[in-house]
Design a protein that fits this description.
Length: 79
């Protein structure tokens, strides 16, 4: 499973468990570490905040529009 796949699964689980539409970057890091991810915290943070965020500055050759940043460290799934 790729880091992106693992993050998406984690985010969907978080949103289902909390009933919220938004999640924080720290919640994703904590949940993935608790689940025993093999990915480093820095990799998770880079994916959520940059590679997977539709409204992040373009710093990577490959990006995805999975999330939208709605506040400082706060995201939601893109529509």
């Amino acid at each position: 499973m790729t880091c992106r796949d693992e993050i998406l699964r984690c985010v969907r689980t978080l949103l289902h468990q909390t009933g919220r539409q938004e999640f924080t970057l720290q919640e994703v890091v904590d949940a993935m570490q608790a689940a025993g991810t093999g990915y480093a915290e820095s990799t998770i943070r880079t994916h959520v905040a940059s590679r997977m965020c539709a409204n992040a500055p373009e710093h990577h050759a490959v990006t995805y529009g999975d999330f939208v940043r709605v506040g400082d460290g706060v995201y939601r799934l893109a529509a």
